[in-house]
Amino acid sequence: MTKRQRTDGSTAASAEAPSQGGASCVDTSKTPTKMQHPLGIKPWGNCFNDMDKGIKPCRPQGLGRFDGLPDTVLHGIFSCLDAPTLGRTAAASRAWYVFSYHDEFWRPLVLLQFGGTFVPQATWRETYIATSHPAFHCPSDQLARVQVQGFYSDLLFQPFYCAQRPSALLSTASMQVDTIPRVDGATLSVEAFKAQFERPNLPVILTNVVTEWPAWTRWDDAYLKRTCGATTFYAGGFNMTIEQYINYSRTLRDDQPLFIFDRHFATTVPPLAADYTVPAFFQDDLFKLLGPDRRPAFRWLIYGPEGSGSSFHIDPNATCAWNAVLRGTKKWIMFPPEVVPPGVHPSTDGGEVSTPVSLMEWFVTFYAQIKSKTPVHLEGTCRAGEMIFVPRGWWHLVLNTEESLAITQNYVSPSNLDHVLSFLKDKPDQVSGIDEERRPHLYAEFRAALEATHPELLVPFDEAQKKKKATWASLVQTDTAANNAPFSFGF
């Protein structure tokens, strides 16, 4: 589970030349001072420069007694206001205007009131008006934009900064780093894949596999809209049709864009499932023994705009995964199981993970740290027509550097079976992808299916379990003997 603060409760070709230098992630020619916030908000560091120009801060007079409160407290107060109150507050002063128009307060009002059926506009505030009161909506290009002078806030500026296109914030050098191996999947044998990547538990990007699917040539906007029709897909806690989602994702920019991460697409729209085939490298999936209705959730349709993606996480239930890109590009940053990425704070048992709220916030804050040390991570770009193998236990962050459409599946192979069995047995409370009441029993159910069909695969696991018990018993026996030994000064 990933813990991230959000007021609305939502949560998801040929290789370029490698670049291994200590390049900074952020393009310093495009710093916050170079970007103009639509409301005129600037980071606090600009205050002193502006005062030298005769520009006075508007907060003391505009906020009155509230000026003594930190922005975090004011943010909490404004997040409790409804739409009419926010609208009225904007007329009080320039400072109140800035807070009242801040888009983070309007996003939850839209999503909680209208779900996925809103009418997207350039901002969440305009979206609220266009959806709730269409007669009062004014097209974005006809709105009079008020630029407030003398308003400074790091807290309110950061979402705008992190909502910029990745190409506007990330340096060219950081975008070209490519240390994940890339192999031609058309010539790689299954056994070679297992020997070089799956068994050693190492990532790889495979080319010339996705391009053989019907989906590669079919999945354009027209086909998706026609095939999916009125079927809705899960996007950040809300349901939208493909047409609604495309409309939203190409209209409204956000630092945490909603993106489709739908586990039911193969059953709700069967033609989509028929448009691709699981590559031979990944067909040895032992969870299939449980049957399609009993196995944990394992496949997802992923569709997101530029700047969307997933923060650092480890794939569920100790499984491996593959992710195939049909449109767009995805930048991957991966850390081996024994290395926790900077800015990521897992709980002791690994059941919960705290990460920065937005993907770009992690890049801006922490990316430089991984470049200043001896590299222990891998990173690269998976392009349209390519797929990436994600080994068990690897931490990974994925950023869509273009609008991207992909399919991903998790699987259990003989190579990682022991780890999956151990996870199901020792951490039933962390099992995901099935109903909560089934979690404590999945180990026994999966083991029974293996005993009936592949008993030989259980031998290594059972032997390892016996050794673990013998080691523990030996330690307990040694400790007991030491406690029962008579006391002596040893002279």
UniProtKB/TrEMBL annotation:
GO terms for molecular function: cis-regulatory region sequence-specific DNA binding; metal ion binding; oxidoreductase activity. Residues 267-428 form the JmjC domain. It is found in: Nucleus. Residues 1-34 are annotated as: Disordered. InterPro entries: Cupin_8 (IPR041667), F-box-like_dom_sf (IPR036047), F-box_dom (IPR001810), JmjC_dom (IPR003347), JMJD6_ArgDemeth/LysHydrox (IPR050910). The keyword Transmembrane does not apply. GO terms for cellular component: nucleus. PANTHER family: ARGININE DEMETHYLASE AND LYSYL-HYDROXYLASE JMJD, JMJC DOMAIN-CONTAINING PROTEIN 8. This is Aste57867_12222 protein. It comes from Aphanomyces stellatus.
